[in-house]
Amino acid sequence: MEARYGEGRPDRLPELAADLVRRQVDVIVASGFAIGAARTATSTIPIVMNFSGDPVGRGYVQSVARPGGNVTGVATLAPDVTAKRLELLRELMPDVDRIGYVTGLADTQEQRGAERAADALGVSVVPMIAGDPADVEQALQRLKQAGVKVVMFSSDPRLARLSPQLIGLSAKYRLPASYEFREQAENGGLMSYGMDAVDLGRRAASFVDRILKGAKPADLPVEQPTKFELVINLKTAKALGLTIPPSLLARADQVIE
Question: Which domains are assigned to the chain?
Fold first, then answer.
């Protein structure tokens, strides 16, 4: 395996993808923005998606059933997950009418999905853009000053690399926060809900296996995640003075005490 990591910097991805193409690898497995970089770098080497967002909307494939080109894999439709995360936050704090939304990019598909889901729940989303630790602190300061009492961090890779800062600053400003990845709740975040990353990795590996055995990406339908996990950190809830509703605890896949 030839592993490359952009360290949360999308500008590094085109060269990393081009390097893999120069090395004539047999298959490229890519996540997030790296999928677009890989697709630009090659139209012949098979590309297996993992954490892709909407692959049709982003132009990675022609359709979910018939991808058509050299790209297939697992589609992670962020707006659906985002809507569920908002529902869980509203269940946690039913009196809240505004939810802070911190992301690394403005006007993303995920943000639009959050706004639509918020409208359906009768709440509003207060968006803030943050790409580095200083931006995150400023965003949380502004949300706190505006009277926002709960925040949701997007799945943007720019933020994922800042997880320790997100968790620490949320505690500093006493803002209950929702994250997408299990590890973020395990490391001190209040609550996470998202796709089971281990399961997604295994499913991506099954695509690689079929391709190496002769299958064409164009003929392999794109799959969607089927396993999701809710993790709640009771230690963090206690530190914030929150009581987690029993109905929410009963649905959690993991409760950290």
Answer: 10-76+197-226 (3.40.50.2300), 78-195+229-256 (3.40.50.2300)
